[in-house]
Design brief:
Keywords: Membrane, Transmembrane, Transmembrane helix
Largest sheet: none
Number of strands: 0
Shape: rod-shaped
Mean pLDDT: 75
Distance between the termini: 39 Å
Number of helices: 2
Number of domains: 1
Oligomer: single chain
Length: 38
């Protein structure tokens, strides 16, 4: 089976899944930025 992340990106089922995925990406990006800047 394919990873859930690939399934969400390839065939998003609901808008909530897209919002949750985008939110996770933003959180990770903000964390990495704060980690490298600090």
């Amino acid at each position: 089976m394919m990873p859930s992340g690939v399934i969400m990106f390839s065939t998003p089922k609901t808008l909530s899944e897209i919002l949750v995925t985008s939110l996770c990406v933003l959180i990770v990006a903000a964390f990495l930025q704060a980690y490298f800047v600090a």
